[in-house]
Task: structure prediction
Amino acid sequence: MSHTLREHDRLLARVRRLKGQMEAVERALEAQKPCGEVLLLLSSIRGALSGLTGEIMQEHLEEHVVHAADEGERAAAALELSQALRSYMRGE
Result:
């Protein structure tokens, strides 16, 4: 069973919290809150998203690369992780 299936409920809860944080930004902008407040909200979202991304990358590495069933799975998983890391690093 994949790590995202085992941790399904917990991961979805984290995503839902992120969604709530984004909605808080939307409400703050609609209410014309000071930019400092909006920046703090955005900073907390970035931290939460980075934490979630790091956790899923780590679990992917452990399950699909380190403990791969065969070399084909390991190579495919390593490529997926490499592509995700490249994309993630460009976003920073």
Observations:
- DSSP finds four helices and no strands in the chain.
- The helical segments are 3-6, 8-30, 35-66, 71-90.
- Residues 3-90 form a domain with the Methane Monooxygenase Hydroxylase; Chain G, domain 1 fold (CATH 1.20.58.1000).
